[in-house]
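Troubleshooting: if your tokenizer reports a length mismatch, compare your output against this known-good record of 70 residues.
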Amino acid sequence: MKLSARNQLKGKVIKIEEGAVNGIVVLELEGGEKVVSTITMNAIADLKLEVGKTAYAVVKASNVMVAVDD
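Known-good structure output:
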């Protein structure tokens, strides 16, 4: 697999919450950090995601915003 995105975080699927259209996938990275992504149920099936499987969180963003309450 080759991608132009440079932020490719390897982890293990530790949880999948299935919904009607979308699912929430939680990956645990090697350092223990967790990355959560909402993807379609079709994508979960196409990728054959299941708890314990190795997967990558691929982050491609031109802007990341951070905010706090006043």
